[in-house]
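Kindly inspect what follows.
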Amino acid sequence: MEHRIWERADAVGRRIETSLLGYGCMRFPTLPDGSIDEERAAALLNTAKAAGVNYFDTAYPYHGGKSEPFVGKVIAQWPRESFYLATKLPMWQCDTLEKAQKIYHEQFERLGVEYIDFYLLHSLHAARYDQAKELGIVDWLWEEKKAGRIRNFGFSCHDNAAGLEHILRDQPWDFCQLQYNYLDTDDRAEEIAGDRGYALTEELNIPLIIMEPIKGGTLAALPQDAAAPLTALDPNASAASWALRWVGTHKNVHVILSGMSAEDQLADNLATFEHFQPLNTAELSAVEQTARILHSKIKIGCTGCRYCMPCPMGVDIPDNFSIWNKLGMFGQPDAVKKQWTARFPDTEKASHCVRCGKCETVCPQHLPIRKALAQLQMELDQL
C-alpha cells in the first residue's frame, strides 16, 4: 500500500504517515430502509485496514448522522495508534460558538475516542470561514489542538481559488481538503478551486487531502468514446484507477478519499494503490483527451454528496441528476427511459419540485438545482 510521509509532525510530535488511499465514510452500503448495512460496511473497513489503509474520513451529517457512531463501533476494535481518524464540524449548523462546542463534544461521544487525528471545518467558503472566525470557533479549535484533543486542524473547501486563498493565508493550517479530479481543473465555477487551488497549497506548503477524485462515481463508468484514449494505453485498467492515479500524480496530495460502497470498488482501489504508479507523459495526455470528451457530455456537475437532502417535497435530487447525467454521458435513451419510468419512484421525481430553493442554500457546488430539475424532467419525459 502506497503511503505518504508528512513533513510536519502532529500536535503531540508524532510522525504522520498516511496511506495514499483514504476511506471516505459517506457512501457505505445500505439496507432497503436506507440504514447502513453494518455487516457489509464493517467488513469493507476491516478489509481496507488489513490491506494498509490507515486514514478514515467521516463527518457529523454523513448517513443522516449515523456514520460517526458506526465508525466508532468499528474502530473500537483496532489499536488506536494504528489509524488516523478524520471528522468535520458542520459549519452551516454552527451560528454560535456554543452550538459548535455542543456538536464537537457529541462527536467524541459518537466516535468513542479521546482525540481526533484530523479535524476539519466542514464545507467552507470564504464567507462561512469569516463567520466561523468572528464567532470564535477557529480560535477555540486551535486551543483544542494545543490541549491534544485535535492532532491536526484543517478544513474542507467548496469555493473557487480566490476564496480558498483567502482562507489558506489567514491561518497556519495543518492541512486542507479539496475537491480535485481531472474534470474539475478549472476554477471558474464558484465551488471549484481547480489547478489554481492545488498550486496554492504547494506554494504555501499545506498538505492536501483530496475528496471526489472520481467525481461521485462519474469517472468510474466512462462511455466508449471517452474511455478510448485510456483503453488504447491499457485495456485492463479500470476507469476509476485512471482517475485515482491522475490525482496521486500530484506531489502535494497526501490522501485521496474514496467512498467505497461495494466490495468490487474496494478491491479495484486496493489494486491501484498496492503498487502505485504516477501517470507518465503519454498517460497524462490520454487523460486530458478523455476529460475534453466528458466535459461535452455532462448535464450538471452534481457529485451526489446529498447535502441537499432531504427535500421538503420528497424529490431525490441527486438521483434525478444521476439519471440525467447518465443520459448525457452515455447516450442510451432506452436504458435511461426504463430506469426513469419503471425503477424511479414517481414521488421522488423532479416534477414535485416547488422551487422553494432550500436545496440551493446548502449545495456545496452552488448548482442551479431548481432550473436543472425542470429541464431534466422535460428531457426525461420526452424519451
Remarks:
- The chain has two domains: 3-295, 317-381.
- The longest helix spans residues 97-111.
- Residues 317-381 form one domain.
- The chain has a mean pLDDT of 94.
